[in-house]
Amino acid sequence: MIATILLSVGIVFLAELGDKSQLMALTFALRYRWWVVLGGIATATAVVHLISVGVGYFLGAALPTRAITLVAAITFLAVGLWTLREHFGGEDAQDADPKPPRANTAPYFVVLSAFLLAELGDRTMFATAALATDNSWVGVWIGSTVGMVAADALAIAVGILVGKHLPEHVIGIGSGLLFLYFGTASLLAAALPGIGVLTGGALAILAPAAAGVALLMRARLVHHSELVHDHPAAGPAEEMR
What we know:
Oligomer: single chain
Number of domains: 1
């Protein structure tokens, strides 16, 4: 049992380094209290991994990877658009609510639902199911949950440190664009199973690139309108002078 737990902790922790879930943890850490984010992650992880070890150990069946990946892709795209909307709402949104990330009435359930949907299509779920086919499902469940929570806790710590040195506005936009990239890549992988990793990754860059161009154009339009408002055109009397 102990060996299974340690094996699962090591595999999942290493697999989660640089994974999308760490990006989500970092982003949510910029929006909510760290203990709320960690609690939501721990609950979602325990539920998802319980499902995966149950499928792997008791059923020995393959999970519907394509359907799950589609759900995960939609989740990433939704989180990306949501993040960009929150962090690039313009001056009116910022004046109306100086701290919109803290205004959500149920941050725990936001984190829980986001991770629950996202992790259903994550590679860690399939790795956990594979481990449970030849090992104790209880040990795999405990170890995989601990390993993932530890990896995401590391991302939360990084998010807290980074948030102290960089504006939350800039970090939020960058995170939103990355969510769009991962969501597009997952969508391409589910819709076109035969597409290569490099090809899919290259095509996925188009989504955040287009969003970035749109954000820049919007920023210039807002800046131009502010200049016109602050310095209106000269009236007839001034023109005669």
